[in-house]
Amino acid sequence: MREASPLACGPAAAGYGLSLRFSLGSTPYQLDAAIFDYHGPGTYSVPPARLSLHTIASDPPSLYRGVEGTLAIAQGERSGSVSGRLSGERGEIRLAVSFHC
Questions:
Q1: What is the reported pLDDT for 1?
Q2: What is the DSSP letter of 9?
Q3: Helix/strand/coil (H, E, C) string of 18-50?
Q4: What are the boundaries of each domain within the chain?
């Protein structure tokens, strides 16, 4: 599991939001997740939780959407993990990342 730098995470009026940045090799990525039916710490399935991944500062950018996986929110709601399978025009990737806000 790879460690990521959080841009934002935590409960919000519309559920739970998460935005992370990390690099794989020399390519920077941003991972965004949203749990609309958030009811506290626990594990949520993707879908219905939304998960997307895109490259940063690449031309053309690569976009991947979550097709299956989990978002785990730990007690305190400031850490957890994301794992799943994402699909995009360049194929599929598997991702496992932990976060601490």
A1: 45
A2: E
A3: EEEEEEECCEEEEEEEEECCCCCCEEEEECCCE
A4: 2-100
Average pLDDT over residues 53-79: 90
- In whole angstroms, how far apart are CA 34 and each of 12, 26, 57, 62? 10, 26, 23, 20
Residue with tokens 């950018």: 61
The CA–CA distances, whole Å, from 58 to 27, 38, 76 equal: 8, 33, 35
Q: How confident is the model at residue 20 (pLDDT cuts 50, 70, 90)?
A: confident
pTM of the model: 0.83
Structure tokens at 94: 């598997």
Report d(CA 11, CA 79) in Å as an integer.
12
Percent of the chain with pLDDT over 90: 53
